[in-house]
Write a structure and sequence with these properties.
Blueprint (H helix, E strand, L loop, with lengths): L1 H35 L6 H33 L15 E4 L2 E5 L4 E5 L2 E6 L4 H6 L7 E4 L2 E8 L1
Parallel strand pairs: 2-4
Antiparallel strand pairs: 1-2, 1-6, 3-4, 5-6
Helix pairs in contact: 1-2
Length: about 150
C-alpha cells in the first residue's frame, strides 16, 4: 500500500512541476511580448499593450507563488508514513471515494482506480482529519464511511 501512496505523491509532485513550468513560461512570454511591442504613433495603444503584458506577468507570478506553496506542503509529506488517524499524507478509502490528503490536485489515476487529491484544509479534508478506520463523516448530506486509512 505504501507503493500506492508513493505513486500518488509522485503524481502530485508532477502536477506541481507542470503548474510551475506553465507559470514560468507565461512570465517569459509576457515579458518577451512587452519587449517586442514597439512604440507606434498611437502612444495610448502602446501603453495599453504594455499594461496588459504587465498584468499577465503579475498573474503568472501570483500563480507561481501559489504553486511554490503547494511544493512546500508536499515537501512536508512522507509518502511512506502510515498513521491510524487521518492527517496530511494519509490515503483514505471510503465507500464514496478514495482520498489522498496532500494538496488539491484533482483526480489522480493509479492502476485504473481514481483517487481525489485534496488539501487538508478543504471541506472534506477538515472533516476527515483525525478520523480512523470505521469512522463516518457527512459532507453536503452525503455520508462517507471510512473503510481504511493508510
Amino acid at each position: 500500500m505504501s507503493q500506492l501512496k508513493e505513486k500518488l505523491y509522485l503524481q502530485c509532485l508532477d502536477y506541481v512541476q507542470k503548474r510551475m513550468e506553465a507559470a514560468e513560461q507565461g512570465i517569459k512570454e509576457a515579458q518577451q511580448a512587452s519587449k517586442d511591442d514597439t512604440k507606434s504613433s498611437a502612444g495610448d495603444k502602446y501603453e495599453t499593450g504594455r499594461a496588459m503584458m504587465q498584468q499577465e506577468t503579475d498573474r503568472n507570478r501570483q500563480q507561481l507563488n501559489e504553486t511554490n506553496k503547494l511544493k512546500v506542503i508536499l515537501n512536508q509529506v512522507n509518502p511512506s508514513a502510515i498513521s491510524e488517524k487521518i492527517d496530511t499524507g494519509s490515503l483514505v478509502i471510503t465507500d464514496n471515494g478514495n482520498f489522498y490528503i496532500a494538496i488539491s490536485a484533482g483526480t489522480l489515476m493509479v492502476d485504473n482506480e481514481a483517487y481525489f487529491a485534496v488539501s487538508p484544509r478543504s471541506p472534506i479534508g477538515l472533516l476527515l482529519k483525525g478520523k480512523k478506520t470505521g469512522g463516518k463523516i457527512v459532507l453536503n448530506g452525503k455520508p462517507y464511511h471510512i473503510k481504511m486509512v493508510i
